[in-house]
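Input record, target 12 of the design panel.
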C-alpha cells in the first residue's frame, strides 16, 4: 500500500450512542420504527432521559461515518491510516468520544463547540433490529471554516480516499463540496452513502450535487427504493435502481461510478459499467444476532479497508461482509481487538 498515513479521511456527525433493548410500547410512544434512522424532533426529546431511566443502557462512541472509519482502521491495523473530522461539545460525552477515537487509532480533528452539548443517538433495539433517533446538537455546528484551517486541510491533502455518510449533507454541504471538488481535481476517490430515506426526501438538492462527484455510492435496499421514488423512476427493483444510480452524470470521467447496495441477509448488489453483480453475505444463525446497529457502517469500513489497498471488488465486498458479521454479534459498532480476516 502506498504511504498509508492518513490515506482515508472521513467527515460526519460524531454521536454518542445511547443503546438499549426497549419494548414496543416505547417505539409506539415515540412513533419510531425499526430499521429506520431519523433526526429527533421536539416530540422525541424526552426519550433520551426516559431510555436511560427505564432500560439498561450502554454508551458507545458512534455516528455513521465515524463507525465506518473506525472499522476500516481496525481492519487495516496500521496506526494513523485513517483520519476523521466532525463537531463535538466541550463536555464529558465529548471527552469520551476523544478517548474512544484515540483507542481506535483514528487521527481525529474535532471542532469543539463551546455552547452546545455533544450529539447523541438513541439506539432502540428489539429482537436484534434497531431504530435510530439522532439528536445532533453539537454535530450540527460543523462549519467549513474548520475544514479550511491549514492543519485540517492538510488531512484532505494527505488522503487518497474520502468517505462521508449522507447524514452530513444535513449539516455542512459546503464542506462536502470542497472535499468533493478536491478529490475530482486530484484524481482521488470520493465515496458517500445514501444513509437514510429522509436524506433523499428532504435534502435532495445537496444530495444530487454531491452525487455528481461520488465514485462509490453505498446504501441499503430501503434507501435505494426511496431514492428511486423521489426521482420518479417508478421501479422498486433494487438492481435496476443501483444501475440507474451508477449511470447518474458524473463530474470526473476518469472512472465510472460504482453503486454498492446491501440488503440485510440477501446478496450485496454491485452495479458498475452497465452490469450488475450479486454477492451472497455470510448468514448468521438468529440466536447469534445481538443487534444490527452499525452493520451497514461496518460493511462500508470493511469494504474501504480493501479498496484503498487496491484489491478487487470481490475482496472489498468479502471484507465488508466479514466486518458486518462481526459487528452484529456484538452490542453497537464494537469489535474484538484484532480482525480475523484473511
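The sequence produced for target 12 reads:
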Amino acid at each position: 500500500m502506498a504511504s498509508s498515513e492518513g490515506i482515508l479521511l472521513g467527515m460526519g456527525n460524531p454521536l454518542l450512542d445511547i443503546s438499549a433493548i426497549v419494548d414496543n410500547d416505547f417505539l409506539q410512544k415515540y412513533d419510531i420504527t425499526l430499521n429506520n434512522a431519523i433526526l429527533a424532533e421536539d416530540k422525541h426529546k424526552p426519550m433520551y432521559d426516559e431510555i436511560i431511566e427505564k432500560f439498561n443502557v450502554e454508551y458507545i462512541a458512534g455516528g455513521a461515518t465515524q463507525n465506518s472509519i473506525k472499522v476500516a482502521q481496525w481492519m487495516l491495523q496500521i496506526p494513523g491510516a485513517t483520519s476523521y473530522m466532525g463537531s463535538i461539545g466541550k463536555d464529558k460525552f465529548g471527552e469520551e468520544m476523544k478517548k474512544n477515537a484515540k483507542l481506535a487509532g483514528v487521527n481525529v480533528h474535532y471542532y469543539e463547540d463551546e455552547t452546545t452539548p455533544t450529539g447523541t443517538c438513541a439506539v432502540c433495539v428489539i429482537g436484534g433490529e434497531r431504530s435510530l433517533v439522532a439528536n445532533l446538537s453539537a454535530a450540527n455546528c460543523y462549519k467549513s471554516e474548520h475544514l479550511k484551517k491549514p492543519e485540517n486541510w492538510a488531512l484532505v491533502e494527505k488522503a487518497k480516499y474520502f468517505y462521508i455518510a449522507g447524514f452530513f449533507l444535513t449539516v455542512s454541504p459546503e464542506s462536502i463540496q470542497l472535499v468533493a471538488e478536491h478529490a475530482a481535481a486530484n484524481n482521488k476517490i470520493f465515496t458517500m452513502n445514501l444513509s437514510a430515506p429522509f436524506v433523499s426526501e428532504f435534502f435532495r438538492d445537496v444530495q444530487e450535487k454531491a452525487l455528481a462527484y461520488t465514485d462509490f455510492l453505498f446504501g441499503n435496499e430501503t434507501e435505494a427504493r426511496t431514492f428511486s421514488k423521489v426521482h420518479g423512476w417508478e421501479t422498486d427493483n433494487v438492481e435496476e435502481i443501483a444501475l440507474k444510480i451508477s449511470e447518474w452524470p458524473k463530474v470526473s470521467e476518469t472512472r465510472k461510478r460504482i453503486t454498492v447496495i446491501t440488503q440485510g441477509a440477501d446478496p450485496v448488489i454491485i452495479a458498475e459499467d452497465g452490469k450488475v453483480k450479486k454477492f451472497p453475505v455470510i448468514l448468521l444463525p438468529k440466536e447469534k444476532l445481538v443487534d444490527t446497529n452499525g452493520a451497514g457502517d461496518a460493511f462500508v469500513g470493511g469494504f474501504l479497508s480493501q479498496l484503498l489497498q487496491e484489491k478487487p471488488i470481490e475482496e472489498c465486498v468479502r471484507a465488508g461482509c466479514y466486518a458486518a458479521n462481526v459487528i452484529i454479534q456484538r452490542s453497537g459498532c464494537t469489535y474484538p481487538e484484532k480482525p480475523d480476516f484473511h
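DSSP finds 13 helices and 14 strands in the chain.
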